[in-house]
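Sample 1 of the test manifest.
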Amino acid sequence: MEGLGMIEMDRRRFVKRSALGVLGVALGARISEAAIGPDKRPNILFIMSDDHTSQAISAYGGRLARVCPTPNIDRLAREGMLFENCFVTNSICTPSRSAIMTGKYSHKNGVYKFTALDQSQPTLPKIMQRAGYHTSLIGKYHLYSNPVGLDYFSVLPGQGDYHNPEFIRKGDEHPSGWVGRGKRTAYQGHSSDVIADQALEYLKNRRPEDKPFLFFCHFKAPHDTWEYAGRYRDFLEDAEIPEPPNLFDDYEGRSDMLREQLQYIGSDWGDHTNFEEDTEHLKGQARKKKQYQLYIKKYLRCVKGVDDNVGRILDYLDESGLAENTIVMYTGDQGFFLGEHGLYDKRIMYEEALRMPFLVRWPRQIKPGATSNGMILNVDFAPTIMAAAGVQTPAEMQGRSFLPLLKGNQPSDWRTSMYYRYYYSHFHTEPHYGVRTYRHKLIYFDRIKQWELYDLRMDPREMNNVYGDPEYQRVVKELKRELKRLQRELDDDPADIGDKPGLGALASNH
Ligand code: CA
């Protein structure tokens, strides 16, 4: 095999040299790669931030657009397409990342909560690598097992550090299979800057020029505990950040989930938003208002750092000429609450945590300034990327390519409902599953056996649970039927509560 490989390499070098020789003389100019028949499939740059939600991206509008604009990320909307209805299938980090990499729901890829991804199954990087792409990932990985299918990687161990982070690079994997145990290399600076520096270094020097690339650039920010770079200390210092109208949601008429969860602003759980020292002199609503301000400013300073660094990367794509044949996608691994319902964090199937930002630019293929309200899911990303590269999707992937939507043609049989499921992990947030259509959302909290139903057209903020309303009984019936249909279609057993040990049993130490 080795011998054959050498011959093949020599042949390619020979062809390249000959072509350069003949054409170089003929044209007296620098020969473009096109002259020697290179791989012209598009490059794919997949940028994902951790917990960056659409309410904090100005292209999506909303109450924060004016106070904290994201002009660089917005460029992708201006020059490409913005998706209004991109949803996560299980709203926490590791499960969403696993769904993205496998094109499958949690119950099929084995990652229900914070457990390791079994890398023996087909994954996006493995398939694209086999198809001739140079595959790489820099930044937050959070799948615990050693990456497979990546020609290059430099990943944070677990959550990693915000300041002066350490990375585990390709070749430094640990033989145990746990990526977090690999040899670490320290970098100086804030994680968003360091990740963008490494991304630029990859694009400039590290990738082979004769292959298209699939490059995952994954920022750690703006995940808690929202430590921003020093240069943003004064950013928003004197601003009064607008509050969501339901910051003081009293949870009336809803399931017990909202009253029992610990992901409310001011919660002691994890000590993330109580800001005890700065707020202990205040009481009641005044205290919560202050906690909200302190929380949201930290979050937005991290967002600003991500946006500035996305700008550096997009500028380089322009300067280098790469932009023309590179699909750039931007997303967050799920949505996030920024005070809506008095909450922070994610998990719950409410709009703010369910919706992922998704913006994509593909020159000459996507009409600039386009928006799509087509319902797309994180499990669709892998099939879409493969389709853009002309690569066949394995049958076991549950997502569907939304390539036609990118080109402005939504197939007549495109989905009109989506299935969601969250498994119990922490924050005392009750597990649940549910179905969302364009108009309604039905949620079942299976441990406490309670339901919520929202009419999103009448009640976009999900304040009025109409599950018991006689006028909605026909809708309840239809949605229960649809929920069952989706469970059958996706082969999810409601009794499977995600407690199978699998590879994940080992992950608790990491
Ligand atoms: Ca996340």
